[in-house]
Amino acid sequence: MVNNTAISVNKISKRYRIGLQKQRYRTLRESLANSPGASARNIRTKLTGTRSARSKPIIWALKDISFEVGHGEVLGIIGPNGSGKSTLLKILSRITEPTSGWAEIRGRVGSLLEVGTGFHPELTGRENIYLNGAILGMRRLQIERRFDEIVSFAEVERFVDTPVKRFSSGMQMRLAFSVAAHLEPEILLVDEVLAVGDLSFQRKCMGKMTEVAGEGRTVLFVSHAMPAVSQLCDRVLVLLSGRLTYDGDTNAAINLYTRSIDDGQDVIDTSASSQRSGTGEGKIVQVRLRGADGGTVSFGIGEPFKVQMMIELRDRISQLVAGFELTSLDGNRILNVRSDSQGLSFGPYLNNQVVTLTISVPGLPLYPGTYLIYPWFASRGGKRVDNLEEGIKINLVSQGLLESEALIQARRGVILIDCSWEAHESTKRSDDHPTLSPSRATSE
């Protein structure tokens, strides 16, 4: 009987000690000082350090995680920062050992976990392509057949013979993704592939990921970008605080994850977020949602509100355009608000300036529920400077317009409009000509 399971994970746990530093390489002098003939003072110091390490508090990055992935399945893994997603992929890639539990993988594994993972910094881009192919068990002739395609996709033709330590983080990520996607591993592990790179390359990545999934290869896809998860994955795991809290339907998983995010913040600090793309000439450091009565993240259907973006500019921008996309939780885009669609741009602004843009939004005729806003701004010509990839929640409430929860759950569509309704009753006279009489509409 053929086993159709590509990955089996059985009760994997991973424990870390808080504050414990990695052991660094010692110099010759330090090695001699710690030799068997070293002084008692040095020996005492070493023992004291051991006791100190044991006294450090521990955290469980993962706790009793179990699941299986079939061959050809595209599995999404979502959860807030610190939930254990990246740790899980590192264990499956054999970069990190689990504290307990085990995993069995059947097939060649290609990993794209962090910028530069799997690259030797002193080797050139060309040499690293061949090295990665050899690690995957490919023959040199097989790699040569895909070489030009890999380099062209990564857009690094001019720098392919340069050591990768001189590549920018974006160039490293582009090349790493291209190698992982084109060298045909049977199992592909991808962590936040959309976190680096401009918008056009992200679209190329999504197209390639869709192509890889369509070829029947197994993919584990970690991302904070819910539209990408919704597009690629038929099944999703939700990790919260290192535990597997859901395994199943994509839309249900996204809803669960979104509800787990704190609802109470009307001012969102985005300065430290890594879930962004763009040229890096500036970034959105804060987003605020404001209703008519002050700050809130919940608005009534049809109630106007404001989106404020605080932008820190690193370089001079002569013309600045901005906007946001609004999507449903399953990633369907509903609105694309742009200043340039109304002929508006702002500036010029000098380097190191802070700009606050306020977008006044009329009431949205949408069904009650939770939606996501993705703010962005660009320079003249539409080149995105900063594009937030992690959605900011906005809640629309019914305010009595729709009291039936069953009606809300059973809706088919997104837009909710307030229509006028009339009904007429028909009666017949002796001459068989009907008479119409209006009747009232009542609300239940």
Secondary structure layout:
Elements: E1 5-17, H1 28-33, H2 40-55, E2 58-70, E3 74-78, H3 85-92, E4 100-105, E5 109-112, H4 125-135, H5 140-154, H6 169-182, E6 187-191, H7 199-214, E7 218-222, H8 226-232, E8 235-240, E9 243-249, H9 250-260, E10 267-269, E11 276-277, E12 282-291, E13 294-295, E14 298-300, E15 305-313, E16 320-328, E17 333-338, E18 354-361, E19 369-379, E20 384-388, E21 392-397, H10 405-409, E22 423-428, E23 434-439
Parallel strand pairs: 3-7, 3-8, 5-6, 6-7, 14-21
Antiparallel strand pairs: 1-2, 1-4, 8-9, 10-12, 11-20, 12-13, 12-15, 15-18, 16-17, 16-19, 19-20, 19-21, 22-23
Question: Which features does this protein show?
Answer:
single chain; 444 residues; alpha+beta; Rossmann fold; Coagulation Factor XIII, Chain A, domain 1; seven-stranded mixed β-sheet; six-stranded mixed β-sheet; 34% strand
Write down how many β-strands occur, each being a DSSP E stretch of 2 or more residues.
23
Helix-strand category: alpha+beta
Tell me the major beta sheet. Answer: 7 strands, mixed
Which strand-content bin applies to the residues? 25-35%
The count of helical stretches stands at 10
- CATH superfamily grouping of the largest domain: P-loop containing nucleotide triphosphate hydrolases
CATH topology of the largest domain: Rossmann fold
| N-C termini distance | 59 Å
Shape: globular
Task: State the name of the first-level CATH class of the largest domain.
Answer: Alpha Beta
CA radius of gyration: 28 Å
What portion of residues is helical?
Answer: 10-25%
Overall tally of structural domains: 2
Q: Mean pLDDT score, rounded? A: 77
Instruction: Write the CATH architecture name of the largest domain.
Output: 3-Layer(aba) Sandwich
Instruction: Catalogue the unreliable spans.
Output: 27-33, 37-53, 400-410
